[in-house]
Design a protein that fits this description.
439 residues, mainly beta, 5 helices, rod-shaped
Length: 439
Protein backbone atom coordinates (compact mmCIF):
# COMPACT_ATOMS: atom_id res chain seq x y z
CA UNK A 1 0.00 0.00 0.00
CA UNK A 2 1.54 3.25 -1.03
CA UNK A 3 1.61 6.06 1.42
CA UNK A 4 0.72 9.30 -0.20
CA UNK A 5 2.43 12.34 1.11
CA UNK A 6 1.27 15.66 0.02
CA UNK A 7 3.73 18.45 0.01
CA UNK A 8 2.20 21.84 -0.37
CA UNK A 9 4.74 24.24 -1.64
CA UNK A 10 3.78 27.86 -1.64
CA UNK A 11 6.07 29.48 -4.10
CA UNK A 12 5.69 33.21 -4.49
CA UNK A 13 7.59 34.52 -7.43
CA UNK A 14 9.29 37.80 -6.70
CA UNK A 15 11.24 40.00 -9.04
CA UNK A 16 14.84 38.81 -9.15
CA UNK A 17 15.83 41.51 -11.68
CA UNK A 18 14.64 45.12 -11.67
CA UNK A 19 12.82 46.19 -14.81
CA UNK A 20 14.21 49.20 -16.67
CA UNK A 21 10.91 51.16 -16.55
CA UNK A 22 8.25 51.58 -13.95
CA UNK A 23 5.56 50.72 -16.45
CA UNK A 24 6.84 47.18 -16.86
CA UNK A 25 6.11 44.30 -14.45
CA UNK A 26 7.45 40.73 -13.96
CA UNK A 27 5.54 37.42 -14.14
CA UNK A 28 2.47 37.28 -12.00
CA UNK A 29 2.90 35.62 -8.59
CA UNK A 30 2.02 31.91 -8.69
CA UNK A 31 1.52 28.96 -6.35
CA UNK A 32 2.95 25.41 -6.82
CA UNK A 33 1.65 22.33 -5.01
CA UNK A 34 3.97 19.32 -5.04
CA UNK A 35 2.04 16.06 -4.64
CA UNK A 36 4.13 12.93 -4.03
CA UNK A 37 3.13 9.27 -3.79
CA UNK A 38 6.26 7.48 -2.51
CA UNK A 39 7.41 3.90 -3.20
CA UNK A 40 7.41 1.56 -0.15
CA UNK A 41 11.18 1.80 0.27
CA UNK A 42 10.84 5.55 0.95
CA UNK A 43 7.47 5.82 2.62
CA UNK A 44 8.81 4.51 5.95
CA UNK A 45 11.46 7.23 6.18
CA UNK A 46 10.73 10.30 8.23
CA UNK A 47 14.00 12.15 8.51
CA UNK A 48 14.90 12.95 4.92
CA UNK A 49 15.22 16.41 3.30
CA UNK A 50 13.72 17.32 -0.05
CA UNK A 51 14.93 19.87 -2.64
CA UNK A 52 13.36 21.10 -5.85
CA UNK A 53 15.06 22.23 -9.09
CA UNK A 54 13.38 23.55 -12.26
CA UNK A 55 14.77 23.21 -15.77
CA UNK A 56 13.54 24.93 -18.95
CA UNK A 57 12.38 22.05 -21.07
CA UNK A 58 12.44 24.09 -24.28
CA UNK A 59 15.72 25.98 -24.30
CA UNK A 60 18.11 24.02 -22.04
CA UNK A 61 16.65 21.09 -20.10
CA UNK A 62 20.06 20.30 -18.54
CA UNK A 63 20.75 23.69 -16.94
CA UNK A 64 18.71 24.61 -13.89
CA UNK A 65 16.95 27.93 -14.02
CA UNK A 66 15.76 27.80 -10.45
CA UNK A 67 17.10 25.79 -7.58
CA UNK A 68 17.95 23.63 -6.01
CA UNK A 69 15.61 25.02 -3.37
CA UNK A 70 15.36 23.37 0.00
CA UNK A 71 11.87 22.45 1.01
CA UNK A 72 11.16 23.22 4.61
CA UNK A 73 8.84 20.87 6.42
CA UNK A 74 5.93 22.71 7.99
CA UNK A 75 4.02 19.65 9.18
CA UNK A 76 3.50 16.07 8.12
CA UNK A 77 2.02 17.05 4.75
CA UNK A 78 3.04 20.63 4.04
CA UNK A 79 6.38 21.94 2.88
CA UNK A 80 7.47 25.45 1.86
CA UNK A 81 10.26 26.71 -0.38
CA UNK A 82 12.13 29.95 -0.93
CA UNK A 83 10.17 32.32 -3.12
CA UNK A 84 10.97 32.43 -6.81
CA UNK A 85 9.33 33.43 -10.05
CA UNK A 86 8.85 31.56 -13.27
CA UNK A 87 7.38 32.52 -16.59
CA UNK A 88 4.75 30.68 -18.57
CA UNK A 89 6.19 27.64 -20.36
CA UNK A 90 7.21 23.96 -20.21
CA UNK A 91 9.55 22.87 -17.40
CA UNK A 92 11.21 19.84 -15.91
CA UNK A 93 10.85 19.55 -12.16
CA UNK A 94 13.53 17.53 -10.38
CA UNK A 95 12.89 16.38 -6.81
CA UNK A 96 15.82 15.07 -4.76
CA UNK A 97 15.56 13.33 -1.42
CA UNK A 98 18.60 13.41 0.85
CA UNK A 99 19.64 12.33 4.33
CA UNK A 100 22.42 13.71 6.49
CA UNK A 101 24.76 14.89 7.63
CA UNK A 102 24.00 12.13 10.14
CA UNK A 103 27.38 11.50 11.71
CA UNK A 104 25.90 11.43 15.22
CA UNK A 105 23.23 8.80 14.51
CA UNK A 106 25.36 5.62 14.68
CA UNK A 107 28.97 4.69 15.34
CA UNK A 108 29.19 3.00 11.94
CA UNK A 109 28.46 6.30 10.20
CA UNK A 110 31.00 8.52 11.98
CA UNK A 111 32.53 9.47 8.61
CA UNK A 112 29.21 10.51 7.04
CA UNK A 113 29.56 14.29 7.20
CA UNK A 114 27.74 15.34 4.04
CA UNK A 115 24.18 14.90 2.73
CA UNK A 116 23.45 11.64 0.98
CA UNK A 117 21.02 11.39 -1.93
CA UNK A 118 18.77 8.40 -1.53
CA UNK A 119 16.21 9.08 -4.29
CA UNK A 120 15.53 11.34 -7.26
CA UNK A 121 12.39 11.97 -9.35
CA UNK A 122 11.86 14.02 -12.54
CA UNK A 123 8.60 15.16 -14.15
CA UNK A 124 7.80 17.43 -17.12
CA UNK A 125 5.00 19.93 -16.57
CA UNK A 126 3.54 23.06 -18.16
CA UNK A 127 3.07 26.30 -16.24
CA UNK A 128 0.23 28.39 -17.64
CA UNK A 129 1.37 31.54 -15.90
CA UNK A 130 -0.69 33.90 -13.88
CA UNK A 131 -1.82 33.17 -10.39
CA UNK A 132 -3.40 29.81 -11.15
CA UNK A 133 -2.06 27.11 -8.80
CA UNK A 134 -0.06 24.37 -10.55
CA UNK A 135 0.20 20.87 -9.17
CA UNK A 136 3.43 18.87 -9.57
CA UNK A 137 2.53 15.17 -9.18
CA UNK A 138 5.21 12.51 -8.58
CA UNK A 139 4.32 8.77 -8.75
CA UNK A 140 6.28 5.83 -7.26
CA UNK A 141 7.56 4.88 -10.70
CA UNK A 142 9.16 8.32 -11.02
CA UNK A 143 11.60 7.69 -8.18
CA UNK A 144 15.01 6.20 -8.75
CA UNK A 145 16.71 4.68 -5.68
CA UNK A 146 19.65 2.72 -7.12
CA UNK A 147 22.37 5.29 -6.41
CA UNK A 148 25.54 3.68 -5.01
CA UNK A 149 27.87 6.39 -3.74
CA UNK A 150 30.75 4.08 -2.72
CA UNK A 151 30.31 1.51 -5.53
CA UNK A 152 30.14 -1.41 -3.11
CA UNK A 153 27.10 -3.06 -4.69
CA UNK A 154 24.59 -1.72 -2.16
CA UNK A 155 22.41 1.30 -2.83
CA UNK A 156 22.67 4.43 -0.73
CA UNK A 157 19.17 3.84 0.56
CA UNK A 158 19.87 0.24 1.63
CA UNK A 159 23.11 1.22 3.35
CA UNK A 160 21.39 4.07 5.16
CA UNK A 161 18.53 1.90 6.42
CA UNK A 162 21.05 -0.83 7.45
CA UNK A 163 23.20 1.67 9.41
CA UNK A 164 26.10 1.18 6.98
CA UNK A 165 28.43 3.89 5.73
CA UNK A 166 27.37 4.67 2.14
CA UNK A 167 30.62 6.58 1.56
CA UNK A 168 32.82 3.63 2.58
CA UNK A 169 32.57 0.39 0.58
CA UNK A 170 33.72 -1.77 3.52
CA UNK A 171 32.02 -0.43 6.64
CA UNK A 172 33.45 -2.99 9.08
CA UNK A 173 36.91 -2.90 7.48
CA UNK A 174 37.20 -6.70 7.23
CA UNK A 175 38.41 -6.70 3.62
CA UNK A 176 35.03 -7.65 2.11
CA UNK A 177 32.89 -4.94 0.48
CA UNK A 178 29.48 -4.27 1.99
CA UNK A 179 27.74 -5.58 -1.12
CA UNK A 180 29.50 -8.95 -0.79
CA UNK A 181 29.54 -9.15 3.00
CA UNK A 182 26.49 -10.83 4.59
CA UNK A 183 27.65 -9.31 7.90
CA UNK A 184 28.86 -5.83 6.89
CA UNK A 185 28.91 -4.57 10.49
CA UNK A 186 30.86 -7.53 11.94
CA UNK A 187 34.59 -7.49 11.37
CA UNK A 188 34.82 -11.16 12.42
CA UNK A 189 32.21 -12.51 10.00
CA UNK A 190 31.99 -12.29 6.22
CA UNK A 191 30.98 -15.83 5.11
CA UNK A 192 27.68 -17.66 5.51
CA UNK A 193 27.94 -20.78 3.36
CA UNK A 194 24.59 -22.27 4.37
CA UNK A 195 22.84 -18.86 4.17
CA UNK A 196 21.05 -19.29 7.47
CA UNK A 197 21.96 -15.82 8.77
CA UNK A 198 24.67 -17.18 11.08
CA UNK A 199 28.27 -16.53 10.04
CA UNK A 200 30.57 -19.51 9.58
CA UNK A 201 32.67 -18.42 12.54
CA UNK A 202 29.70 -18.72 14.93
CA UNK A 203 27.56 -21.28 13.11
CA UNK A 204 27.51 -24.70 14.82
CA UNK A 205 26.56 -26.23 11.46
CA UNK A 206 28.26 -24.00 8.87
CA UNK A 207 27.30 -26.17 5.90
CA UNK A 208 23.70 -27.01 6.89
CA UNK A 209 21.16 -24.25 7.41
CA UNK A 210 20.03 -24.19 11.05
CA UNK A 211 19.05 -20.66 12.05
CA UNK A 212 17.81 -21.88 15.45
CA UNK A 213 21.27 -23.35 16.26
CA UNK A 214 19.71 -26.20 18.27
CA UNK A 215 22.40 -28.18 20.13
CA UNK A 216 21.14 -30.85 22.53
CA UNK A 217 24.50 -31.82 24.02
CA UNK A 218 25.86 -28.26 23.97
CA UNK A 219 29.02 -29.29 22.13
CA UNK A 220 30.48 -27.43 19.16
CA UNK A 221 28.19 -29.19 16.63
CA UNK A 222 24.52 -28.36 16.13
CA UNK A 223 21.97 -31.17 16.13
CA UNK A 224 21.55 -31.11 12.33
CA UNK A 225 25.21 -31.99 11.72
CA UNK A 226 26.15 -33.77 14.96
CA UNK A 227 26.70 -37.54 14.41
CA UNK A 228 26.04 -38.11 18.13
CA UNK A 229 23.40 -35.62 19.23
CA UNK A 230 23.18 -36.82 22.85
CA UNK A 231 26.97 -37.25 23.16
CA UNK A 232 26.62 -40.70 24.75
CA UNK A 233 29.43 -42.25 22.72
CA UNK A 234 27.10 -44.12 20.36
CA UNK A 235 26.50 -42.37 17.03
CA UNK A 236 22.95 -41.74 15.88
CA UNK A 237 23.19 -44.17 12.94
CA UNK A 238 24.14 -47.04 15.27
CA UNK A 239 21.46 -46.02 17.75
CA UNK A 240 18.78 -46.21 15.07
CA UNK A 241 20.14 -49.62 14.01
CA UNK A 242 20.13 -50.94 17.58
CA UNK A 243 16.81 -49.35 18.47
CA UNK A 244 18.16 -47.06 21.20
CA UNK A 245 17.18 -43.40 21.56
CA UNK A 246 19.62 -41.06 19.75
CA UNK A 247 18.58 -38.11 21.92
CA UNK A 248 18.72 -39.93 25.27
CA UNK A 249 22.06 -40.84 26.86
CA UNK A 250 20.75 -43.91 28.73
CA UNK A 251 18.00 -45.46 26.64
CA UNK A 252 17.33 -48.47 28.91
CA UNK A 253 17.71 -46.51 32.16
CA UNK A 254 20.20 -48.97 33.69
CA UNK A 255 22.62 -46.22 34.79
CA UNK A 256 25.02 -46.95 31.91
CA UNK A 257 25.19 -44.48 29.02
CA UNK A 258 24.45 -46.06 25.66
CA UNK A 259 28.03 -45.74 24.42
CA UNK A 260 29.32 -47.86 27.33
CA UNK A 261 26.34 -50.24 27.52
CA UNK A 262 26.76 -53.57 25.69
CA UNK A 263 22.99 -53.83 25.56
CA UNK A 264 21.64 -50.25 25.34
CA UNK A 265 18.01 -51.23 24.74
CA UNK A 266 17.65 -53.75 27.60
CA UNK A 267 18.62 -53.07 31.19
CA UNK A 268 21.61 -55.28 32.11
CA UNK A 269 23.64 -53.71 34.85
CA UNK A 270 25.93 -56.79 35.11
CA UNK A 271 26.91 -56.39 31.41
CA UNK A 272 27.27 -60.20 30.99
CA UNK A 273 28.90 -61.00 27.63
CA UNK A 274 29.72 -64.71 27.34
CA UNK A 275 31.45 -64.60 23.96
CA UNK A 276 33.12 -61.21 24.58
CA UNK A 277 31.78 -59.79 21.32
CA UNK A 278 30.74 -56.50 22.96
CA UNK A 279 27.06 -57.40 22.65
CA UNK A 280 25.55 -58.28 26.02
CA UNK A 281 24.03 -61.74 26.42
CA UNK A 282 20.62 -60.24 27.08
CA UNK A 283 20.43 -58.84 23.56
CA UNK A 284 22.90 -61.17 21.78
CA UNK A 285 21.20 -63.59 19.37
CA UNK A 286 24.20 -65.96 19.54
CA UNK A 287 25.71 -65.90 23.02
CA UNK A 288 28.53 -68.35 22.25
CA UNK A 289 29.24 -66.94 18.79
CA UNK A 290 29.25 -70.38 17.16
CA UNK A 291 27.03 -69.39 14.24
CA UNK A 292 24.01 -71.18 15.71
CA UNK A 293 21.21 -68.88 16.88
CA UNK A 294 20.42 -69.23 20.58
CA UNK A 295 16.88 -70.35 19.74
CA UNK A 296 18.34 -73.40 17.93
CA UNK A 297 21.57 -73.96 19.87
CA UNK A 298 21.71 -77.08 22.09
CA UNK A 299 24.59 -75.51 24.00
CA UNK A 300 23.89 -71.78 24.51
CA UNK A 301 27.05 -70.67 26.24
CA UNK A 302 29.63 -73.08 24.80
CA UNK A 303 30.61 -72.89 21.14
CA UNK A 304 29.62 -76.11 19.33
CA UNK A 305 28.88 -75.48 15.70
CA UNK A 306 28.56 -79.27 15.09
CA UNK A 307 25.74 -79.49 17.69
CA UNK A 308 26.96 -82.99 18.68
CA UNK A 309 24.57 -84.71 21.11
CA UNK A 310 25.64 -88.33 21.69
CA UNK A 311 22.78 -89.33 23.96
CA UNK A 312 20.24 -87.18 22.10
CA UNK A 313 19.05 -85.44 25.23
CA UNK A 314 18.97 -82.07 23.41
CA UNK A 315 21.88 -80.87 25.47
CA UNK A 316 25.03 -80.59 23.35
CA UNK A 317 27.97 -82.75 24.33
CA UNK A 318 30.14 -79.65 24.80
CA UNK A 319 28.03 -78.35 27.64
CA UNK A 320 27.08 -81.54 29.54
CA UNK A 321 29.15 -83.47 32.13
CA UNK A 322 27.87 -86.88 30.96
CA UNK A 323 27.66 -86.97 27.19
CA UNK A 324 26.62 -90.63 26.91
CA UNK A 325 24.22 -90.56 29.86
CA UNK A 326 25.77 -93.59 31.60
CA UNK A 327 25.90 -91.74 34.93
CA UNK A 328 29.68 -91.56 34.78
CA UNK A 329 31.02 -88.05 34.43
CA UNK A 330 32.92 -87.35 31.24
CA UNK A 331 36.06 -86.55 33.22
CA UNK A 332 36.14 -90.14 34.58
CA UNK A 333 34.38 -91.95 31.73
CA UNK A 334 36.72 -94.12 29.57
CA UNK A 335 34.11 -94.05 26.83
CA UNK A 336 32.68 -90.51 26.98
CA UNK A 337 30.38 -90.89 23.98
CA UNK A 338 29.33 -94.55 24.40
CA UNK A 339 27.42 -95.94 27.35
CA UNK A 340 29.51 -98.40 29.41
CA UNK A 341 28.50 -98.61 33.02
CA UNK A 342 31.10 -101.38 33.67
CA UNK A 343 34.00 -99.26 32.36
CA UNK A 344 35.79 -102.49 31.24
CA UNK A 345 39.19 -101.84 29.69
CA UNK A 346 40.87 -105.17 28.78
CA UNK A 347 44.17 -103.75 27.58
CA UNK A 348 44.16 -100.93 30.16
CA UNK A 349 44.97 -98.31 27.60
CA UNK A 350 42.45 -95.79 28.96
CA UNK A 351 39.78 -96.61 26.39
CA UNK A 352 36.87 -98.79 27.43
CA UNK A 353 36.29 -101.96 25.44
CA UNK A 354 33.11 -100.62 23.83
CA UNK A 355 34.94 -97.69 22.25
CA UNK A 356 38.45 -99.19 21.84
CA UNK A 357 39.10 -100.22 18.22
CA UNK A 358 41.61 -102.85 19.44
CA UNK A 359 40.38 -104.04 22.81
CA UNK A 360 43.24 -106.50 23.42
CA UNK A 361 45.89 -104.28 21.85
CA UNK A 362 47.22 -107.18 19.77
CA UNK A 363 47.54 -105.18 16.58
CA UNK A 364 44.32 -106.52 15.04
CA UNK A 365 41.28 -104.33 15.25
CA UNK A 366 38.23 -105.80 16.89
CA UNK A 367 36.44 -105.59 13.54
CA UNK A 368 39.18 -107.75 11.96
CA UNK A 369 39.14 -110.23 14.80
CA UNK A 370 35.37 -110.59 14.71
CA UNK A 371 35.52 -111.31 10.99
CA UNK A 372 36.93 -114.44 9.24
CA UNK A 373 40.70 -114.40 9.29
CA UNK A 374 43.15 -116.16 7.02
CA UNK A 375 42.24 -119.52 8.60
CA UNK A 376 38.57 -118.82 8.03
CA UNK A 377 38.08 -118.74 11.81
CA UNK A 378 37.42 -115.81 14.17
CA UNK A 379 40.06 -114.80 16.63
CA UNK A 380 39.32 -113.54 20.11
CA UNK A 381 39.27 -109.74 20.28
CA UNK A 382 39.97 -110.01 24.00
CA UNK A 383 42.98 -112.33 23.69
CA UNK A 384 46.26 -111.25 22.25
CA UNK A 385 47.19 -114.92 21.37
CA UNK A 386 44.00 -116.78 20.57
CA UNK A 387 45.68 -120.19 19.96
CA UNK A 388 48.18 -119.75 22.83
CA UNK A 389 51.16 -120.72 20.69
CA UNK A 390 53.21 -117.74 21.90
CA UNK A 391 52.71 -115.75 18.72
CA UNK A 392 50.44 -112.65 18.78
CA UNK A 393 47.39 -112.92 16.60
CA UNK A 394 48.51 -110.10 14.28
CA UNK A 395 51.75 -112.02 13.49
CA UNK A 396 50.41 -115.61 13.56
CA UNK A 397 49.85 -117.21 10.15
CA UNK A 398 47.42 -119.57 11.85
CA UNK A 399 46.02 -117.49 14.75
CA UNK A 400 43.38 -120.08 15.78
CA UNK A 401 45.54 -123.23 15.43
CA UNK A 402 48.74 -123.56 17.39
CA UNK A 403 51.76 -123.70 15.05
CA UNK A 404 54.82 -122.54 16.80
CA UNK A 405 57.05 -123.14 13.76
CA UNK A 406 54.77 -121.09 11.45
CA UNK A 407 55.42 -123.43 8.51
CA UNK A 408 54.03 -122.20 5.18
CA UNK A 409 55.17 -124.46 2.36
CA UNK A 410 53.50 -122.52 -0.45
CA UNK A 411 54.34 -119.11 1.02
CA UNK A 412 50.81 -117.88 0.62
CA UNK A 413 50.65 -116.34 4.09
CA UNK A 414 48.48 -119.12 5.51
CA UNK A 415 50.33 -121.52 7.74
CA UNK A 416 50.33 -125.16 6.72
CA UNK A 417 48.41 -125.95 9.88
CA UNK A 418 45.41 -124.05 8.63
CA UNK A 419 45.93 -123.79 4.85
CA UNK A 420 42.98 -125.09 2.86
CA UNK A 421 44.30 -124.17 -0.58
CA UNK A 422 43.83 -127.07 -3.04
CA UNK A 423 47.31 -126.67 -4.47
CA UNK A 424 49.03 -126.90 -1.10
CA UNK A 425 50.92 -130.21 -1.12
CA UNK A 426 51.81 -129.99 2.56
CA UNK A 427 48.30 -129.52 3.82
CA UNK A 428 48.08 -130.92 7.31
CA UNK A 429 44.41 -130.50 8.13
CA UNK A 430 41.66 -132.81 7.02
CA UNK A 431 39.56 -132.17 4.01
CA UNK A 432 36.51 -132.24 6.23
CA UNK A 433 37.80 -129.38 8.41
CA UNK A 434 38.51 -127.27 5.37
CA UNK A 435 35.10 -128.05 4.02
CA UNK A 436 33.39 -126.88 7.13
CA UNK A 437 35.57 -123.76 7.33
CA UNK A 438 34.52 -122.81 3.82
CA UNK A 439 30.87 -122.88 4.72
Amino acid sequence: MQNKIFFKVLMTFLCLQLLSSCGKSGPAPATFVAEMSLPPSLSSLSNYQASLTLYDNQTNPQTPIIGPLSLEKINARTWSADAFEVAQGDYVAELKMNVGPIASETAALTTLRQPLMIAIARRTFSFPGGSVATTLSFQPSDFITDMDQDLDGRTNLSEYTANLNPFLNDTDQDGVSDGQDPFPLDINESIDEDQDGIGNGRDNCPLIANPLQQNLDQDRLGDLCDPDRDNDGLNDVDELRLGSNPVQTDSDQDSLIDGLDNCPVLSNLNQADNDQDHTGDLCDLDDDNDGIADTLDNCLLVSNSDQADANRDRIGDECTNDDDGDEILDAQDNCRLMTNHDQLDFDRDGLGNVCDPDSDNDGLTDDDENGLGRDHMQTNPLATDTDSDGILDNRDNCPTISNVRQEDADHDGDGDACDCASHDENIRISFTLCFYRSL
